[in-house]
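Figure 2 data, in text form.
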Amino acid sequence: MNLPTFVLKNALRNRRRALLTIISVAISCGLLVTLLTLQRELTIPPESEAASLRIIARNKVSLAQPLPAKQLAVIERIPGIVAVTPFTFFGGNFRDETVTSFAQFAVDPKRFQGLLVEGKIVDGSYDAFVADRTSCLVGADTMKRYGLKIGDRMKFTGTFFPVDLDLKILAVFQGTVDDRGVFFHHKLLDELNGDPGTVGTWYMRVESAEVSNEVIARVNAAFENTAAEVRAETERAFQMGFVSMLGNVKMLVMLISGAVVFTLMLVTISTMSMAIRERFRELAVLKALGFQRRELFAFILAESFGLAVVGAVVGIGGAWGLWTHLDLQKLTSGFLLYFEVTPRIMAWGAAVAAVMGLVSAIPPAVETARMSVTEGLKTLD
């Protein structure tokens, strides 16, 4: 019998205990990978390459405060801006839903086409959408989820605005990081609200990423000390502002992850200690035969580390397979668009498993080191 076979036989001597140890490590790694992935999806919004060219300007006081529509003439004259449109969040509920997961925005259709650079029209006609004031442009994911087709009506009950919408689908887009949104004519929203002469935000595209900061400064300066000062920021910064409303998600996830890993590590340490105590007599015999403390520690470490590696493979591989093939967008009703288990997250899971295997080997190894041959031989099986 060689040394690897010796370690393997010892690890699998009590197969039920070995299986429970592997399961505990697998659960720990799988849950850790899931929590880290959830944290990533909540704190790092998806972003396309074109997002670096887009800027959103809102009221400096609050996002809930509207901006004067007459600001458009000033914004259009700012160098570096190649497209700008009013961009007002409607926030209605579709059909009989109490909470609708996709957003609806009022835009200027002609101007908005200059901002939707990465999206492509895959059904219907954008020109038809522009021509019909009661029509809408809908994301492909929403069309698929609700089984909609060109020509269908979409009715929304207003929540932020005291009006309802009855829109006709005339165009479908696809290719953006979020193919769920619905866009309709801002003129329709103005008419329904009595033409208040306001917009929610301004949505702009600049000619290059190099002039982005300069354009932001100019937009802010253009309305400084006016009754409606604005705060311009990149699309990503605007998205991160919403993420910050969730609170310190990262800290919460790390605390939960730490508690889970610590608890299961205690279970693993207890299991390994129990397995080694049952073999004190055998270890004493090995000491009597001339094996050194470091060699006995290597046997224990190999056993503990081997079980941890198997558990990590099962847990991390299982989490990757589950979240890769599960339609989480459908399961969460559109709350989560993506749930990508990245190589970095899997590496974190593997590192935790490695540490767990190492730490679990230390207590039984210390006990073995302190044990004398005489004491070990007196131990009952």
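Caption note: The chain has a mean pLDDT of 83.
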